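Here is the promised in-class demo. Please do not try to memorize the tokens; focus on the logic of going from shape to residues.
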């Protein structure tokens, strides 16, 4: 099945699996999705991810992270910002802060996909893909 917005599909799968308290979730793979999963891992929102090959189709196998018990969710919210119908860009001076710095914004820049904090450090702007908190 072809989706018009594969990043929104990935975020929705993670959100649904997190709400249903699943341990893992599988997402069709792409370079952009792998870099988003890498950011989620680096920022501590997921335990790990693996790129697996199922019948020649690459899939990202994401292991979700919870608190002491499964009622304590690490990811409390995911929101897609820039959509195919309405792209949202931010210059280096107007990069968004999520919940006053408690969450992260994922930015696609010309230096790769990075968080809003890294983009401020690198002094670059780009397309605001998603907010995660």
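The designed amino acids, position by position:
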């Amino acid at each position: 099945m072809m989706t018009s917005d594969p990043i929104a599909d990935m975020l929705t799968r993670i959100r649904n699996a997190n709400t249903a308290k699943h341990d893992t979730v599988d997402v069709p793979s792409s370079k952009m999705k792998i870099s988003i999963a890498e950011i989620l891992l680096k920022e501590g929102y997921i335990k790990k991810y693996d790129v697996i090959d199922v019948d020649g189709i690459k899939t990202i196998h994401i292991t979700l992270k919870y608190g002491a018990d499964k009622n304590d969710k690490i990811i409390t919210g995911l929101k897609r910002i820039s959509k195919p119908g309405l792209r949202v860009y931010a210059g280096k001076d107007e990069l968004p802060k999520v919940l006053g710095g408690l969450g992260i914004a994922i930015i696609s820049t010309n230096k790769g996909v990075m968080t809003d904090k890294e983009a401020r450090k690198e002094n670059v702007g780009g397309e605001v893909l998603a907010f995660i908190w």
